[in-house]
Write a structure and sequence with these properties.
The complex is a heterodimer of chains A (about 220) and B (about 140). Chain A has about 220 residues and is an alpha+beta fold. In chain A, about 15% of the residues lie in helices and about 40% in strands. Chain B contains 2 helices and 8 strands. In chain B, the strands form 2 sheets. In chain B, strands 4-7-2-8 form a 4-stranded antiparallel sheet, with helices on one face. β14 of chain A pairs parallel with β1 of chain B.
Chain lengths: ~220, ~140
């Protein structure tokens, strides 16, 4: 694996539900669930700081020790956020084997400044900050780096230096980023039509009524 | 020209309410940074356009601005000094329903500091309290 697998100790949750989950969050722990490998799902809580640190470092797989007993490799499957989207409130983890093939989102880091994008009116438009790939759990790379200084107008998934055993899910001709020209009229944007406020959209139902009336007539 | 739908099913709409929080369109999806509304409000097509112009003048064709809201709600208003009754008034303007949490604009292709300044200029044109947000963690 590209990054070292962090070891995280979790505690089983005896009581589940929103009220008990809120209490856990206030105490600096995150409610989580672990499932997979044909075993029963278990409700656990994990230290928020420890988990966020692992996720920010790009960890996809973590070594989970439930109540300090044994150790399972778990893939972080899903994250749930609060309503404003800035606080993690719950996470899903699934037990995996090192030889299991999984689908994950890998971040794509673009280094440097594209020469073509430095021209007047040219903008580097990044379409995908991450790509979906399938690979063995043991082959998960940390991130994919690409230097875009000498890139052509378009950088596609096929141009990325993917490690052996890592296959992108999307077609290879899909864009990661491209250099586009910002339209002149869009950039100016101040010339407004004098009668613009009077313009009204077409009413579909009214047209139908008129058609019906003319047919009857 | 202010934005509005090309075709609509009905000319006028009821006012509705915005008592809930946004549970879609509430994360940065297309750009690198976004402007998130913290209050519910109708944002008129003119305000959306004013925000776009403010950002694009500041960015000087450097980054890309994505507008995440569309004014698809017709707002009717009775003329001044008119007696009540006589049916629902004509459409005055078009507005987007903005619930707390909605991402209004997104910016890509510029450093964080520039994006922050551009989005703060947009925020001044908005009728709601807003805040600057980045992309969410993903796995």
């Amino acid at each position: 694996m590209g990054t070292e697998t962090p070891n995280i100790t979790v505690e089983t949750r005896e009581k589940t539900g929103s009220r008990y989950s809120d209490r856990l969050r206030r105490a600096g722990r995150l409610p989580a669930v672990i499932y997979g490998k044909g075993q029963d799902p278990i409700h656990v809580s994990v230290d928020e700081h420890e988990m966020l640190e692992a996720l920010h470092q790009g960890a996809h797989v973590v070594d989970i020790s439930v109540d300090g007993k044994g150790s399972d490799k778990c893939l972080v499957k899903d994250l749930q956020f609060g309503w404003l989207g800035d606080n993690l409130i719950h996470l899903d983890m699934t037990r995996v084997d090192l030889n299991e093939i999984v689908t994950i989102n890998l971040p794509v880091t673009l280094a440097g400044t594209a020469k073509l994008a430095s021209a007047a009116g040219a903008v580097l438009e990044v379409i995908r900050r991450e790509i979906e790939v399938t690979c063995k759990v043991s082959d998960i790379p940390g991130e994919i780096k690409y230097d875009i200084t000498d890139m052509d107008e378009v950088l596609t998934i096929g141009d990325l230096p993917l490690p052996d055993g890592v296959t992108p899910v999307l077609e290879l001709d899909k864009h990661i980023c491209h250099v586009t020209l910002v339209h002149q009229e869009e950039a100016e944007g101040e010339e407004t039509d004098v009668n613009a406020d009077d313009a009204q959209p077409e009413v579909i139902t009214k047209a139908k009524e008129e058609e019906d009336a003319s047919e009857e007539g | 020209m202010p934005r509005m739908p090309k075709r609509v099913k009905f000319r006028k709409q009821m006012r509705g309410n915005m008592k809930t929080r946004a549970n879609r369109g509430n994360y940065v999806a297309f750009g690198d940074y976004g402007l998130q509304a913290l209050e519910p409000h109708w944002v008129s097509a003119r305000q959306i356009e004013a925000g776009r112009i403010a950002a694009q003048h500041f960015l000087r064709r450097e980054g890309k601005v994505v507008i995440r809201i569309f004014p698809d709600k017709p707002i009717s208003k009775k003329p001044l000094e008119t007696r009540m009754g006589k049916g629902k008034a004509d459409v005055d303007y078009w507005a987007a329903r903005v619930k707390p949490g909605t991402i209004l604009y997104e910016i890509s292709g510029v450093p964080e500091e520039i994006a922050k300044r551009a989005l703060s200029r947009i925020a001044r044109k908005m009728p709601v309290r807003c805040r600057f947000v980045g992309k969410r963690l993903s796995v």
